[in-house]
Automatic annotation (TrEMBL):
<keyword id="KW-0732">Signal</keyword>
<feature type="compositionally biased region" description="Acidic residues">
    <location>
        <begin position="251"/>
        <end position="267"/>
    </location>
</feature>
<keyword id="KW-0812">Transmembrane</keyword>
<feature type="region of interest" description="Disordered">
    <location>
        <begin position="248"/>
        <end position="267"/>
    </location>
</feature>
<dbReference type="Pfam" id="PF02157">
    <property type="entry name" value="Man-6-P_recep"/>
</dbReference>
<feature type="transmembrane region" description="Helical">
    <location>
        <begin position="181"/>
        <end position="200"/>
    </location>
</feature>
<protein>
    <submittedName>
        <fullName>Cation-dependent mannose-6-phosphate receptor-like</fullName>
    </submittedName>
</protein>
<keyword id="KW-1133">Transmembrane helix</keyword>
<dbReference type="GO" id="GO:0019904">
    <property type="term" value="F:protein domain specific binding"/>
</dbReference>
<dbReference type="InterPro" id="IPR000296">
    <property type="entry name" value="Man-6-P_rcpt_cation_dep"/>
</dbReference>
<dbReference type="GO" id="GO:0005802">
    <property type="term" value="C:trans-Golgi network"/>
</dbReference>
<dbReference type="InterPro" id="IPR044865">
    <property type="entry name" value="MRH_dom"/>
</dbReference>
<keyword id="KW-0325">Glycoprotein</keyword>
<keyword id="KW-1015">Disulfide bond</keyword>
<feature type="transmembrane region" description="Helical">
    <location>
        <begin position="6"/>
        <end position="24"/>
    </location>
</feature>
<dbReference type="GO" id="GO:0006622">
    <property type="term" value="P:protein targeting to lysosome"/>
</dbReference>
<dbReference type="InterPro" id="IPR028927">
    <property type="entry name" value="Man-6-P_rcpt"/>
</dbReference>
Length: 267
């Protein structure tokens, strides 16, 4: 019984540690993971903190999309000229959803409003839109929605926008390089040349065998033409020409050679 009790305590502590590790770090995840949002948001886990200011230049905001430390605040709001920082959203209340080219991360559970929005907790929505060529992105404030109407159920929120390739489900379109285009054109021209030339040699000129290859004689002598061109371009020394007169040794051998008996026979 003592061993079972020790095992139970160990398992309980281990599971508690795992639970704390999962909830104290990482990116917001969806339980059912529709549209593969979990893997897409994980692409942002190594990103630094994003910052921006509103249109009035009175408030500044900072967002760390994925939790990397013990700070539970995901979205922070600061007023210019003041050291006060407001909690505008926490990781604990974060939710995520998405489509084919967008992700929406909502951080709730922020600091409560003091005089409006029925003193509800602050909430921040981060809309990540697809930008296939952007690996960092730029954060900007889209809207700060709040109201003093105590009879409305319309929630107050901060809406931010970030462009990043993590929101994309399809990568950037692949383009063909200029070299590939030239190679394709070359292969097409060669194919048309061979096919049309073969048909002409076969049915018009009546050629047979290798003669059906267009310009067969030229291609057969192509190697010799290359050698002549290389000899003309690459060799600097003057080519030695054979003399027009016979060497002395050849002349002497001609004089000492026996006469041709055929010339002495009667015709």
């Amino acid at each position: 019984m003592a061993d079972l009790g020790s095992i139970y305590i160990f398992v309980t502590i281990f599971c508690s540690c795992v639970f704390v590790m999962v909830n104290c770090g990482g990116c917001p995840h969806h339980a059912n993971d529709p549209n593969n949002v979990n893997d897409r948001i994980d692409m942002l886990k190594d990103q630094r903190q994003y910052s921006c200011v509103d249109d009035s230049n009175k408030y500044s905001y900072s967002i760390l999309i994925c939790q990397t430390g013990k700070d539970p605040t995901a979205v922070k709001q600061a007023k210019k000229g003041s050291k006060r920082i407001y909690n505008a959203g926490t990781y604990e209340s974060a939710t995520i959803r998405g489509g084919t080219d967008w992700l929406m991360v909502s951080y709730g559970g922020g600091e409560k409003y003091q005089s409006h929005c029925q003193k509800a907790p602050r909430k921040s929505d981060l809309l990540i839109i697809c930008d296939p060529n952007e690996s960092r992105g730029t954060l900007k404030v889209i809207e700060e929605h709040r109201t003093n109407d105590t009879h409305t159920t319309d929630p107050c929120y901060y809406l931010f926008e970030l462009n990043h390739k993590a929101a994309c489900t399809v990568g950037p379109p692949k383009t063909i390089s200029p070299g590939s285009i030239l190679l394709i054109i070359f292969l097409i021209v060669v194919s048309v040349y061979l096919v049309l030339g073969f048909l002409y040699q076969r049915f018009v000129a009546g050629a047979k065998g290798f003669e059906q290859i267009p310009n067969f004689n030229m291609w057969r002598a192509f190697g010799n033409l290359q050698a002549d061109g290389c000899n003309f371009i690459c060799r600097c020394a003057e080519v030695r020409r054979s003399p027009r007169y016979k060497p002395v040794e050849d002349a002497l051998s001609d004089d000492t050679a026996p006469p041709d008996d055929d010339s002495l026979l009667p015709m």
